[in-house]
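Figure 3 (text version): structure tokens given as input.
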């Protein structure tokens, strides 16, 4: 969370400091700190005034830590010492349902629920294989209590079960995701990318919808004259992501591309949630709480 603006970083740090994680909710299960991270990344993304997209106003803050904890504990609910949900998609489904329904935050509850769902699916090794419209439909159906109407065919399979809604959501997810393969990679935010380059001695400046990178290659010997290399490209905002092609073009333009064994080697330790938000920004924008 090191790329948050100072005011949001202070609020995030306060929440994490005063609300320690719940014991037993280790990845791929989701804990309080994961949820706070998702929430404040969403706030940062949609209120980012550096973006070429229109920035929003959001009522920032948590409404009930108890309701949030209740939603998270759905992942490990047990009867007679046996976990109710053990299948990964069932766990994702019950947490998603709880986050949508509990309205733990002052604003952005549906957004947070979707981002956490996508993130937990990723932790379990799944990535979306359908249009983002299908995820938007699922969020809105849960929020409006319309799972039965909008997924009637699926609902019939589980109508007699006590947790029919959770089973329907899990069944939907099964059709909406696939196992990620070795080609999958996560793109960093522009800020994270620039910070990574800065460690290599690259300087950057942003102006008039462009970002300019400058790298001075001093060569291997002092007798060589330092060579200054410049590369400019479009700037979409600090929270917007840098894809592998754009990163390759920038690194090549600066003469740095061959210094890394892979794109991931440069970006080790980046936060994947910015990438998820950028990929799903259209439904997330429309899911703003009314």
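Below: residues designed for each position.
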């Amino acid at each position: 969370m090191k790329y948050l603006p100072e005011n949001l970083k202070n609020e995030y740090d306060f929440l994490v400091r005063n609300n320690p994680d719940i014991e037993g909710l280790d990845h791929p299960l989701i804990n309080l700190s994961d949820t706070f991270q998702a929430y404040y990344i969403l706030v940062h993304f949609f209120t980012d005034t550096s973006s070429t997209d229109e920035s929003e106003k959001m009522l920032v803050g948590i409404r009930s830590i108890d309701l949030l904890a209740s939603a998270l504990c759905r992942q490990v609910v047990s009867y007679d010492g046996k976990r109710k949900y053990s299948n990964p998609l069932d766990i994702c489904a019950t947490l998603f349902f709880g986050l949508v329904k509990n309205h733990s935050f002052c604003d952005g509850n549906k957004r947070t629920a979707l981002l956490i769902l996508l993130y937990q699916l990723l932790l379990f090794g799944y990535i979306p294989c359908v249009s983002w419209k299908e995820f938007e439909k699922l969020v809105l159906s849960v929020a409006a209590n319309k799972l039965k109407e909008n997924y009637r065919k699926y609902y019939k399979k589980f109508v007699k079960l006590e947790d029919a809604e959770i089973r329907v959501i899990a069944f939907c997810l099964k059709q909406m995701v696939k196992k990620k393969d070795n080609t999958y990679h996560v793109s960093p935010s522009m800020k994270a990318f620039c910070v990574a380059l800065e460690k290599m001695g690259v300087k950057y400046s942003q102006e008039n919808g462009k970002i300019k990178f400058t790298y001075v290659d001093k060569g291997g010997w002092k007798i060589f004259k330092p060579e200054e290399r410049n590369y400019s490209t479009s700037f979409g905002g600090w929270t917007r992501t840098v894809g592998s092609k754009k990163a390759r073009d920038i690194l090549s333009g600066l003469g740095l591309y061959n210094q890394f064994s892979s794109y991931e080697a440069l970006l080790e330790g980046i936060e994947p949630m910015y990438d998820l938000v950028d990929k799903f920004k259209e439904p997330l924008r429309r899911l703003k709480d009314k």
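The longest strand covers residues 210-217.
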